[in-house]
Amino acid sequence: KTKKILIDFFLNSFLPVAILIFLGFIAAKKSLFNYSESLAIIKYVGVIAVPAITLKMTLSINFSIINWLLISNYIVSEIIIYLTAMLLCRFLFKLNWSESVIIGMASSFANHLLFVYPMALNEYEADLINPIIAIIGFDVIFLVINLIILDCLKFQKLNLKIIFLKQFSNIPLLAFIIGLLIIIFEIKLPITISRSVDFISESAAPCALFAAGIILSQRLEKTQIKISYLIVTFKVILHPILAIILIWNLNKIDFSVSETTIMVASAPVGLMALIFSTQYGVNPNPITRALLITTILSIVIIPLAGTLS
Known about the structure:
mainly alpha; single chain; 309 residues
């Protein structure tokens, strides 16, 4: 029975996502798309589609049914992984602080929004999708904190107040705040706006997954291999193990409630660390390599995480 569930999950949930990545990979190999065009696609996703889907998912959060103990356990596991990977890079591998922060992000930030979330929509009811949305909301805030840290490291002469205010140009954060305000003040969106948000949101996952396939087709330099393996180890091995220990063993939260949360912990490296590595002068090669390896490993790990008992 478990084997059948695993096969069904692979065919019906993972494979549709993997096909888009594969199409991007083949399109790049056939020279139909190149690396710079993939970055343009990702820029569209980050600036337009991700804010739309962030707003949509924020509006869909049912705060009354959020399992705060479950979410807080995931957050603790994510922060532990982030800090451990960052400090190892800084003091063991002697990277600078900007590199260490980016590697910490890559080791802990999951590709939940554009990888796990689309798969979960095919398999689970709203009560199990809600934890994924809550985690995404936290990660938007966590991302802003990291950008403030990176700006402080990059622009050491800028006033901290200016650096903080600069984060309000972070469109996903603004979308999250707007969504919360709409919920708090019970504002009803016009049908035109609501349908536009839905329409744009639906483009986020296909575009990002296709662009990821293009990126994964690129030839990688044989540098910083140890860093890439560190990211892989933390992201798809240590993070799910730590999450399971915290959620199931220490807090005794039932599997039927926490399975999608464990799936998020098992997800591959998110694209945000790759995107911001180029903006902050960090070598993207180890992150790209880790993204490739964790994506391949997720073919087995995520379906397994979704069928544990």
